[in-house]
Design goal:
flat; 50 residues; two-stranded antiparallel ribbon; alpha+beta; 2 helices
Length: 50
């Protein structure tokens, strides 16, 4: 889910074209909450794989 929210918010370069990035419809609270699982996973990821 965090990647999907980030894609909608920021967009991405795919196949040489910029797609997504219409994030003005996403609240900052939604983005913050979507980032919480990513932060939890990063805290538990071994140092050598970062």
């Amino acid at each position: 889910m965090p990647d999907a929210v980030t894609f909608v918010d920021c967009g991405a370069m795919i196949g040489g074209r910029f797609v997504g990035g219409n994030g003005s419809l996403i609240s900052r609270d939604t983005i913050r909450r979507a980032e919480e699982p990513r932060q939890v996973l990063l805290r538990h990821e071994p140092e050598e794989s970062r």
